[in-house]
Amino acid sequence: MSGTDSVPSDHRDFVRQIVEDDIRTGKWQGIVKTRFPPEPNGYLHIGHAKSICLNFGIAQEYGGKCNLRFDDTNPEKEDVEYVESIKADIRWLGFDWEDRLFFASDYFEQLYKWAEQLINDDRAYVCSLPLEDIRAGRGTPSQPGTDSPHRSRSTEENLDLFRRMKAGEFEEGEHVLRAKIDMGHKVMLLRDPIMYRIRNVTHHRTGDTWRIYPTYDYTHGQSDSIEGITHSICTLEFENRRPLYDWFCENLGIHHPQQIEFNRLNLTYTLMSKRRLLRLVNEGHVTGWDDPRLPTISGLRRRGYTAESVRSLCTHVGVTKHNATTDMVVLENQIREELNRTVERRMAVLDPLKVVITNYPEGQSETLEAVNNPEDPAAGSRNVPFGPEIYIEREDFMEDPPRKFFRLGPGREVRLRWAYFVKCHDMVKDADGNITELHCTYDPETKGGNAPDGRKVKATLHWVSAGDAIDAEVRLYDHLFVTEDPDEVADESQDWQNNLNPTSLQVMAAKLEPSLSAPAQGYRCQFERKGYFCVDQDSTPEKPVFNRTTTLKAPWVKKKKQTG
Ligand code: ATP
Ligand code: MG
Hints:
Elements: H1 14-25, E1 33-36, H2 46-61, E2 65-70, H3 80-93, E3 101-103, H4 108-120, E4 124-127, H5 131-137, H6 155-166, E5 176-179, E6 194-198, E7 212-214, H7 216-226, E8 231-235, H8 242-252, E9 258-262, H9 274-282, H10 297-303, H11 307-317, H12 328-342, E10 345-346, E11 348-349, E12 352-357, E13 366-371, E14 381-386, E15 389-393, E16 413-416, E17 421-429, E18 435-443, E19 460-461, E20 464-465, E21 470-477, E22 505-512, E23 524-527, E24 531-535, E25 545-550
Parallel strand pairs: 1-2, 2-3, 8-9, 10-23, 12-18, 16-19, 21-25
Antiparallel strand pairs: 4-5, 5-6, 6-7, 11-22, 12-15, 13-14, 15-20, 16-17, 17-18, 21-22, 23-24, 24-25
């Protein structure tokens, strides 16, 4: 997909249209200021990448700025490890917050002052009901809530209690600060929402300074306001919180950014929630946050995805007001198209079966020329050794081949890629009847893969010379879940974890052509007929480890959901 630069104005998404209208009408004096506001409670996933591309992208396209702000109001769940991983992932995606790195916790003092201001204005009060009673008092969407008995506390009493909450004089749960809005409001969230809770916990940045912590709702809009954000772009589930966002800005009389909601990115066969990804990590269903099966940015990176392919998916799916699920195939196609153009071809046998070339002259060996990338003539060619013993893929031979199987079988001839025609005349089996070795003859006249007499073969196999092969571990990945929507469970007693795919990881003891000895970290190539691969961080010069990024072709997609 091309970048947004080439999209005609009237095809821009609705968020960009709003930004353009605002620039035209001078609503914000032509200023465009966005932010990406992650909570540091886990690693970023590809859904966050969509938000990053949108916020940083809009700032870039309209001469604006995008801040990185950690929304760190929930000390129990947050950690510096997450802060650092989030920064690394955003940089890897190709975006830069320059000197605009902020933390909501930097605003705790200001937020506290504003809370006192709201108490003084009779717009906030200390409520001492237990949490369950507060919840019950909210009412239902069809029934109004009931006023807290503490709603009419005097300003003096409220200020005194609130200051003592801050000073750490109370236990958790004894009091909360609530906004005084309307217990009968049709929007439930506006029925006197909680602004502050007592929490006797250490914060990863403010340490033990604070004994009270502001809620997300009381923090987010004001943080936007402090930073002079113009367009506060968030996902659709925040739509119902917008009235509260607006209420705080209005009642504090501060700069009031416009909240705009867009649709989340969802993918089939996976989950997109830090809370659940954390469970997968903690319960050992994956090897860590960067497990190549996860939709985390670090997992995709380790899997071999490029930043460009992740960004182009985000452009491809677009920005709308409707939630939908994108087929995983759409993501895979982004990287397939890119790697097909950019990476070289190599030969690797993932499930080796030995072939002895019985008529190959004793003591002889030779090198053959192999083209590096048929899509890119500039990539040139390399030499691959050929000798009396080679490996082919076990699945490329059948003792009793069915009609549609065109590869090797007894008495059949096939082409070895870049090499010769070979014909099978014998099989060696072990005591259990498993084939352990094939015996073939080769035709020296077919060097390079063509017969001078014009005879044809129906299959071309990849292979590796046994005497020169490099032993490697190759990891093949499948979907983490067996169902398109892991949340779909047969009955209520089940959990999405029951849908985990037991064969999502397959480890192969592979044989590689010698040009792949001691591959560098970050190296990517296509293994002919087997897919696109990259070197894993576990790789050593003695034992290379490769991950399959994706197969060569998209699997047959039965039911196409929304593809963006
Ligand atoms: P999660 O449920 O995975 O924890 P979150 O929304 O709680 O996601 P935050 O760290 O609060 O995570 O999100 C930072 C920003 O990323 C928010 O503005 C949020 O709207 C956006 N975001 C999160 N998930 C997605 C998604 N799937 N698609 C697009 N944007 C997303
Ligand atoms: Mg969140």
